[in-house]
Amino acid sequence: MSAPSKLRAAILIISETASKDPTTDKGIAALQEVFTRIAGDRWDANETRIVPDNVHDIQRSIKGWCDGTDPINLIATSGGTGFAQKDVTPEAVTPLIHKHAPGLM
Q1: pTM for the model
Q2: Mind listing the domains of the chain with CATH numbers?
């Protein structure tokens, strides 16, 4: 019997600073550690990307991961959720959700 394949997660960091200098980002390593430590061998979280606070860049990343021939099972986002005018993650992601799951946000 073959081992079940791992679920695939992607990590999307939304940050003006980190999009210009990826060495400033601490989110990718922290989230990958969570997947490794808590999820064990059930998840592969190697797909990562850093984009600026821009609706089109955020949506392009998510759509690319979801609409491909081998879609991602889960996308974890970090950043762009403050109250500054440039923080647009909720506005970028909301129109892409087909079925809302209150309480998981």
Answers
A1: 0.87
A2: 7-96 (3.40.980.10)
